[in-house]
Amino acid sequence: MKTLFLLQSNGNSNQATGLESLTEITLYKITIAVVVVAATYGILWANEKLIAWVSEKVPSRFRLGVKQSLPFCRAVIILIAVLTLVRLFVRLSANNLLALTGTTAVALGFAFKDYASSLIAGFIALFEGPYRVGDRVAIGEHYGEIVSYGLRGVRLKTPDDNLVTIPHNKIWTDPISNANAGELEAQAVTHFYLAHEVDVELVMKILYQAAYTSKYTQLKLPIVVILSEKPWGSHFQVKSYPMDARDEFIYQTDLIERAKQTFAKYGVEYPSVWSDWSDRP
Prior knowledge:
By secondary structure, the protein is of the alpha+beta class. 53% of the residues lie in helices and 17% in strands. Strands 4-3-2-1-5 form a 5-stranded antiparallel beta sheet. A 3-stranded antiparallel beta sheet has the order 6-8-7. α2 (27-57) runs antiparallel to α3, α5 (94-111) packs across α6 (113-128) and α8 (200-212) packs across α9. The termini are far apart. This is Mechanosensitive ion channel family protein.
C-alpha cells in the first residue's frame, strides 16, 4: 500500500509539473495563434513569389544564388513562427524546454517516422548541398530541375513539364546525380546515329561547328565530339554546354536541326536498319 501510494504521488506530481509548464490558455492567445499560423502561410507564399520574381530580374549569373536562398528563408520564417507559438502556451525554462524537446522527438519518432526522417534529411541537405533550387538532378528514375525546396521534400520539374515531389529521405538510399551543382551551365549530350560508311572527319567537323556556332553554346567551356562503333552503325556524341541549363532541350533541338541540314547538303547517310534495338542508348 505504501509503494502504491508513492507511485500515485509521483504520478500526480509529474502531472502537476506538466500542467504548471503550460500558461493559461485564453481566447486571446488562441486568436493570436491562429493569426500567427495564417500570417506564416501568407509570408511563406509571398516569400516564394518574391524570390522567384527577383531571380528572373537579376543578371543570369546571380539567378541560382537568389533561388537557393529560398530554403533558408523558409526555415527561418517557420522557426520564428514555432517559437512564437511555444512562448504563447509554454513557460520557457531550461527544464520545460528540455522536456518539450524530448516529448516532441519521441512523438515524431513513433507517429511520423518517415516524416521525421524527411525533415532531418532536408535539414542536413541544406548544408551538404546534394541538390539546391535550380539544379538539374536525377533522383531514382526522375530527372529535371528542382523548382521548390520544402521541409519534407523537393519538387522536380521534368522535361515533360510534370511536377514530381520527392521526399528528402531519398538521400539516405538513392544515388543523386547533379548536372550543374549550383552553376548556371550543365553539360548536354546530343546523340547522332549514322552509317558505318560516313566520312568520320567530315561528320565530326560538322558536329563541332554546329555546337560552336549555336547561339545557346557557352564557348568558355569545352566542346567535345566522341565516336563509338555499334553493330548497326556509328554513334556520335556531342558534349557541350548551353549558357543556361534551362535551355538544355531547346539547345539539343537546335544542334540536331542544323546538323541534319548540313548532313543533307553533304549526303551523309543514316543506318538503314537497326540490327539490335537493345544496343541503342
